[in-house]
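Notes from hallway chat w/ T.B., transcribed later so I don't forget. T.B. wanted the structure written out for a chain they're using in a teaching module, and asked if we could keep both sequence and structure tokens in one place. Agreed to drop them here.
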Amino acid sequence: MATASLHDEARRGDIDLVDRWFRALDQRSIHLGIGDWLVQVTSILVEEGVLWIQIADDTRRAGSVVLRVASTTPVEQAVYALKARAAMRTSSYPTVICASATHARIN
């Protein structure tokens, strides 16, 4: 008789969550004024309902962006935060963007 533990179910849930966010963001084109930014997701870590999504930044300030979202954050909220970040001049490396359903913050 096969049994599944709560840990196995939670792990499957995390895998589904990572897959959903990867499909929603990777290779997504974000319009920025006269140009576009093609999002390239390089890794995703899930930690207690929080996703840390690392994105390669090939815009004029090439580097890395880390997007922090809750499992309940709408994808469009995250895209809005990424778009707002691209319009700003930030000096930190990597740039960390916190996006949630209620607020967005760039560090």
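Follow-up for T.B.: The chain has a mean pLDDT of 78. Might be a good example for the class.
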